[in-house]
Amino acid sequence: MHARSALFDVYGDHLRSRGSRALVAGLVRVLDPVGIQAPAVRTAISRMVSEGWLEPVQLPGGRGYRATDRTIRWLDDVAARVYRAAVDPWDGHWHLVLVDQQGERPERQRLRADLEFVGYAELTPHTWISPYERAGLDEVLGRAGATARRVRADRVEPSPIGAWDLPGLAAAYDSFVAEADALLGDADDAPAERADEAAFAARFRLVHEWRKFLFSDPGLPPELLPDDWPGHAAARLFSGEAARLKPAADRFVATCLD
């Protein structure tokens, strides 16, 4: 687990209700139970500041860092997708984005990853498709310096569903369910003095692994998925365990940050 990724998890999952800010020392204490060391935390913070994800603030206890407005918007969108607060009804139309991007290969690869992250799949070279018009598309294109023409289609032939690797995604969901006990570890058997810390670590691992589906699951409407889609059972398991562990995890974070 990389420190930068872990910090995004902390800001997205625990700090949004605390003003999206924290002392450096508090962040170090929070991440210690999941094996992230202090030098790695500080290096990751510095990198996130240079990239515009965090900004320094003076807090009562000393120097801290706040998520920028851009980061807060992004984390709000991520949280809605992680916890699957609502599934938008599908009107049966497809949204195509015809991308024109100049630049070097690293920039093109980053754009590809960002488009996949927000839910598009590459149908043909430079043509991306989704059953929904995705939030965050304008920011993704702007960050890459790309322009795009958008087309709304009643039908796409042949069916574009093959643009997504649904068999691979189904296997990943099956693996998540099979490995859930290992992710949760000994949270329920920890001694009383470590119960909150153990709950935090277990929930953190669970959420961290679940967030990976943001890069592979486009959030397709039920009409396009098999009736026995394993993502449904995996989502129920995740939601139930994340909710069960949250009160204790929140108590641990509070002891680290207050």
UniProtKB/TrEMBL annotation:
- Give the signal peptide range: none
Residue ranges of every copy of the Transcriptional repressor PaaX-like N-terminal domain listed in the record: 3-68
Cite the Transcriptional repressor PaaX-like central Cas2-like domain residue spans from the record.
89-136
Q: Which Pfam family is one of those matched by this entry? A: PaaX_M
InterPro entries according to UniProt = PaaX-like_central, PaaX-like_N, PaaX_C, PaaX_trns_reg, WH-like_DNA-bd_sf
Q: Where is the Transcriptional repressor PaaX-like C-terminal domain?
A: 164-254
Q: Which PANTHER family match?
A: PHENYLACETIC ACID REGULATOR-RELATED TRANSCRIPTIONAL REPRESSOR, TRANSCRIPTIONAL REPRESSOR PAAX
Could you identify this protein by its name? Answer: PaaX family transcriptional regulator C-terminal domain-containing protein
Identify the species of origin. Answer: Nocardioides aestuarii
